[in-house]
Structures are given as C-alpha cells and as structure tokens.
Specification:
With 319 residues, the chain is α+β, with helices and mostly antiparallel strands. The protein has two domains: 179 residues, no CATH class; 98 residues, Rieske Iron-sulfur Protein, CATH 2.102.10. It has a six-stranded antiparallel sheet with strand order 1-10-9-4-3-2, with no helix packed on it. Strands 5-6-7-8 form a four-stranded antiparallel sheet. β7 and β8 form a beta hairpin. The two termini are 32 Å apart. The C terminus is likely disordered. GO terms for molecular function: 2 iron, 2 sulfur cluster binding; metal ion binding; monooxygenase activity; oxidoreductase activity, acting on paired donors, with incorporation or reduction of molecular oxygen. Pfam families: DUF2231, Rieske. Keywords: 2Fe-2S, Iron, Iron-sulfur, Membrane, Metal-binding, Oxidoreductase, Transmembrane, Transmembrane helix. This is (2Fe-2S)-binding protein.
C-alpha cells in the first residue's frame, strides 16, 4: 500500500511538472470561450447547466459515477460471458447486456467529458496539467469503447471484450488523476470557508465606512466574512471566499444586485446568495445583517440557499 501511495504521488508530481501542456491547454480554453460566446444570450444558461448551478454542486461527479458503474457492469458481464461451463442462453444474455451497458457507459462518458471540460477550464498550473491528462486519457478510453461497441455489433465479441478491458484499465488510471483533483486540490468542492455560527448580533464596523459596490472584509470569532451595500442601500453579508476556488470576495464588487467573484466572474444574488452565473455551482453563504445606531451588525443564523449553514451548525452541536 505504501509503495502504491508513493507511485501515485510520483505520478501526480510528474504530470504536474509538464509545463509544455500549458500552451495547448490555454489555446483549447480560448476555443471553448469562443464556442460559449457564440451562444449569445443562451451562454449563461448553458454554462450554468454544465457547471451544476441548478444542482448546487458540479454535474461532472455524478456523471462520472454513472460512467464508472456502466463500464464496470460491462467488464463484469464480459467476464461472465467467457466463463466455461455456462449455459449458452446465459452467455448470450450476458453478451447482449454487456453491449447495452457499454453503450450507456459511452454516452455517460461523453456527457461527463463535456461537464468536466467546463469545470477544468478555470484551473491553473499543476491542477490544469493533471486535468488535461485526465481528460486525454478518458478521450482515449472512449475511443476504445466505441471501437469495442462496433466490434460487438459485428459479432466480434472476444475482440470487443479485449478492447473494452483495455479501455477500462485506462479509465481506472484516469480516475485516479480525477480523484486527486477533487480530494487533494479541492476542485469541485465548496470552498466558501468556515460558517459563522454565533446567534448573537455582533457589531463589525460603522455603516458610514462601507462604500457602495465594494465588499469589505470583517471577522467574527475567527471567521472571515464580507459586507456590502446592495443597490437599494441595504447591507448584506456573505462568506469570505467564493465557493468555486476560494477567491477572496472582498476583491470582488457588487453589480446590479449581484456580487461578482474577482477571479472567474461567478455572480451571486445579493439577497439570497444563489448562483446567477457560474462557474461556481454552490451558493455563497449569506448571513443576517442590520444597521443599529450607525453600526453594521451581523449574526450567524442567517440563511444559506441550500441550508449549508444550518447543516454545519447541526454538525457542530452533534460534536
């Protein structure tokens, strides 16, 4: 286990050092931007759907799980179909269902690739290189799966089984890289930071010091937040970091009822924190704010669009 762990670490380190991948990857990102911009008014709707703004988290992971399940089923049925001593009817059924599972896996893999590329385009440096190799390996594996599916349709079952087994081995290796992006780099994970749990109104700064359209960072009980004025002159308070890749929202700005992430342009509703435009998928935690005797006061039992604040509070009580 230790050796495999070291091998995985060395592999990730090696891929992360391949700076030659940067130039083609940024060119590909530029091409993606042109494609999305060509959608005109539908751009935000399409990218939000691909990023998972409607779901509250990225769409890529569940599609990747569906892909893995379908392809794993294909390999299992293939193994069953070549076992000696099985009735001919069972072998035919296993082969037929394996081809159907493979077809589902191909479709899920394509959908997973489209959503994965949409998430990947906002990564940088080592994460971008690992993600690029992850995607290229999946592209290679998908080509093998298509070839396998076509061979099976032509009656070349053993050849199809061998090709899909090779593709599945590539998929397993690629999945390791994808898992590293999630669990080590936090790609696709809500990175909005700690939740404020205090239920008491806490003064943070004079209302007169808050500029229109400019979020300002404050801190309560070691938890960072940003405070801003909305278009109607009221005050809103949010988590310190963008849920997408932890951009400091204090460097962002308020534009027509939306608080904008300074790094990748994610936009959140100032009244609810809900995502209006990705690449962020999770909402921005929002807290209760008021002005009392000229001071802005906050408390941590404000609402979060998906209940993350209350869930976090419950976990804290349970501990």
């Amino acid at each position: 286990m230790v050796q495999r762990s070291k091998l995985g670490t060395r592999t990730l380190s090696f891929v992360g050092r391949q700076e030659w991948l940067d130039r083609p990857s940024y060119r590909f990102e530029h091409m993606l931007g042109l494609v999305y911009n060509a959608l005109g008014g539908a751009r935000d709707r399409v990218t939000n759907a691909l990023n998972g703004a409607w779901l509250g988290h990225p769409v890529h992971p569940p599609l990747a799980s569906l892909t893995s399940g379908a392809l794993g089923t294909t390999v299992a049925l293939d193994a069953l179909s070549v076992l000696p001593g099985r009735p001919a009817s069972e072998l035919v059924d296993a082969s037929r269902f394996a081809r159907r599972a493979l077809g589902l896996g191909i479709l899920a893999n394509v959908a997973s690739a489209v959503t994965g590329v949409t998430d990947w385009q906002h990564t940088h440096e080592e994460d971008r290189r690992v993600g690029a190799v992850h995607g290229l390996l999946n592209l290679l594996a998908t080509g093998l799966y298509v070839k396998s599916w076509a061979d099976r349709r032509r009656g070349r079952h053993l050849r199809g089984i061998a090709i899909s087994a090779l593709g599945y081995g590539i998929t397993v290796g690629s999945s390791y890289l994808g898992g590293a992006l999630v669990f080590e780099s936090g790609i696709g994970i809500d990175q909005s930071g700690q939740r404020l749990r205090t239920h008491d109104w806490t003064p943070v700064l004079p209302a007169s010091s808050l500029q229109n359209g400019k979020p300002q960072r404050v801190e309560i009980d070691g938890v960072g937040l940003v405070v801003c004025r909305t278009g109607n002159g009221e005050v809103s308070a949010f988590g310190e970091f963008c849920p997408h890749l932890a951009a400091p929202m204090a460097d962002g700005w308020v534009d027509r009822g939306r608080i904008v992430c300074p790094w990748h342009g994610s936009r959140f509703d100032v009244d609810s924190g809900e995502v209006l435009r990705g690449p962020a998928a999770a909402p921005l935690p929002r807290y209760q704010a008021r002005i009392s005797d000229g001071m802005i006061e906050l408390r941590g039992d404000g609402h979060h669009p998906l209940g993350a604040s209350s869930l976090e509070a419950k976990r804290g009580v349970a501990k």
